Structures are given as C-alpha cells and as structure tokens.
Amino acid sequence: MTDVLRRGRLSLAFGFLVQGVAFALLVTRIPAVQDRYGVSDALLPAFLAAVPILAGIGSVATERLVRRVPPSRVLRWSQPVVLLALLGVGAGEHLAGLGVALAAFGLAVGALDASMNMLGVGLQRAYGRSIMLGFHAAYSLGGIAGASLAWVGAHEGLALWVSYLPVVLVLLPAALVGSRWYVDGGGEPGAEGAAPGGGAGKGAAVGLGWLVPLCLVMTVAYIGDSTVSNWSAKYLQDVLGGSEQLATVPYNVYMVTTLLGRTVGDVGVRRFGAVAVVRAGALVAAVGFAVVAGAPGAWVGMLGFTLLGLGLCVLVPQTFAAAGRRAFELHGPGASDAAVARLNVFNYVGFLIGSPLVGVLGDVWSYRGAMLVPMVLVLVTLVYAKSFAPQPDRYGGGHERPRTADVGRGSNGL
C-alpha cells in the first residue's frame, strides 16, 4: 500500500504540473491568439469568459460522472483533451475553429480540475497528513514553466502551433503513462466499489449546505488571484509609474512566491493546523493588497505582490482539503468527491468576477481604491476559518484517521 500511494502521489503531482503548463501557455499568449484569428477587442472578452463558464459546466458534469466511473478515469482522459485543445487553439485558422477549441478546453479543464483535486483529497486522507499544498505547488511550477516557454515562443516570433506542438508531443504521452498509477479514494478498501464503475455512489446525493462558507472562501481566493494575473502589470506601469519591462515582473514574482509558499505550506499545516495557516494566509494577503493600494512607487508595489503570493497560495488547496475531509467525515468518500466538484465551480466564479470587478472600479473610482475591495473580501476568510478545522466524524474523533499507508512509516518523504 505504501508503494501504491507513493506512486499515486508522484503521478498526480505530475498531472498538476502538466495542467499548470497547459493553462499558462494559453493565458500568456492571448494577444497572439487574438492576432492570429483577428478577434476584436470587443469580442475577446466573450471568448475569454466562455472558458471559465464551460469549465464550471465541466465540473458540475464531473460530479455526476464520478458516480459511475472513478475520478482517475476522468482525469486520465480529460488531460489529453486539454492538451489537444491547446494545440487546436494554436493550429486553427478560423473563428469557428477557435470557438470549438476553446469550448473543448474549457469543458475538459473543468473535468480535470475537479477530478485531480478529488484524487488529491483522497490521497491526503490516506496519508493522514497535509499533502494538498504540494500538489498545488506542482501546478505553480508548471505555470512558471509554461509562462517561460510562452516567453521564448513570443521572443523568437514562433507561430502558436510551433510553440505548442513540442510541448504537447512530450506531455501528452507522459501524462497517459503517469495516469497508470493514479489512486482513487486514497486506496481505501471498497472506495472503488461504492457504485457501479467505482464512483461516488449514494454519498454524492447527500445535501452539502455546510459547503457554502468554503465556496465563499474559494470565490474570494480566485478574485484575488485573477486581480493579480489580470491587473498587476497595468497597475505597476500606469498607477505606480514603473517601466514596461518592470511591469512584467510582478506576476512572475507572484508565481514564484506562490510556489515557495505551497512548497513549505504542508509543513505549516502539520505543525500549526489548517485553521492557523488559513488565517495567516488571509492576513498576509490583506496586507499585500493594502501595500499595493498605498504604494508610493513600483518597488513598494512589488513588495505587495510578493506578499499576495505568499498569502493567497494556501487558501485554494486548503479549501479543497477542508471540503473533502468534512464531506468524508459526515457522509463518506462519495460525498467527498461531490463536495470537491461543487466547490471547484467557485474557482471559475471568482475568476469571472475578479477581473471585471477591478476594471469597473478602476474606471469609475480609482485603481488604488479598487485594490482595497479584494483586500476586504479576503478578510472574509477569517470569519469562516473554523470551517477548515476537522469535525467529529461518524467513526468518532475529530481528526483525519491514519490509513494503511502510514503504518510503519515516518512523517518525512513521499
């Protein structure tokens, strides 16, 4: 069992990394996509909004799908679709083709995000200790790699399909091979037999009203994240007077500090508990937004974006972990998968709200003032921080129970 879980953890981390690469390659080359297809500035927001909307639909569909098939199978086949859709975006010639490729990308991303977080929650439960932040650290690493590859393609003036094709040729077969070692339900006996095909079974039908606070936290976290990704460059250049070259740095700094925070975050959760880590993350993120809003110049603004990376990075992984753990404690593994799928929808809700929110407030008020809104919203997390604490479960006790994987193994290593 230890070897099974170790391989499952490594293969899933690679899946997160691949997703980070693919998503970064798409979003960082949006101007090139716009030029290739002649998409007008008026039409571009509709194309961009369609991706998270369809991803939300894909996540909802995955909740139903995993009642019949294991999440590992959903992940195994949605990841190639994401990569092929990315290649389709780069290789098409007409707007209709772009629409089809982006639709496939969005639906597959929703299924992929939901299923890989289901597997991550199950593995964390099996390990009996926090490992979720490590998976999201792999995603951040993939995002940095993807953004770097996109920069090379743009710098060399490569066609989109030329930039995307080598990445797809390498990552697609690697992801398929790695998917052989995915582990459903944390390797728990009977987890794959809860329903025909190994899905969630009756647990998925259980009411999940208690999930609402975590949905709010997820939304707020992605409002903060989309604020940085969409507005950091413009803010640093137009508001804080930074150069065009310097304006490209804040998002890279944010991604690097997100990676660093997630890399060490699991250790913090094990030592201080999820509630303390989430509270600290929310406070650091709020301070980061305050520094950005009040910065007298570009370098102080850079400090604010650095703090944002360190603060926001813990919220999303811990929200998924808390939802899956609480659902399992109350209703069993089937409800855990359903909770993760429903929670994942609010990833896209936050993304859809964040960018236009700052833009509208910046136009009608000021961009400095607009940065105070996500600062206030992220403080909402403090109100709901207790939702991240383990609850007394049906087996008795209020903590995750060690699984077979932890027998005879220390707390270090995979």
TrEMBL record:
PROSITE patterns: MFS (PS50850). It holds the Pfam family MFS_1. It comes from the Bacteria. The chain crosses the membrane at residues 12-30, 42-61, 81-111, 131-152, 159-183, 203-224, 272-293, 299-324, 345-361, 367-385. Residues 394-414 are annotated as: Disordered. It is found in: Cell membrane. It is a multi-pass membrane protein. Residues 396-406 have a biased composition (Basic and acidic residues). Keywords: Membrane, Transmembrane, Transmembrane helix. Residues 210-414 form the Major facilitator superfamily (MFS) profile domain. PANTHER family: BYPASS OF STOP CODON PROTEIN 6, INNER MEMBRANE PROTEIN YBJJ. This is MFS transporter. It comes from Streptomyces viridosporus T7A.
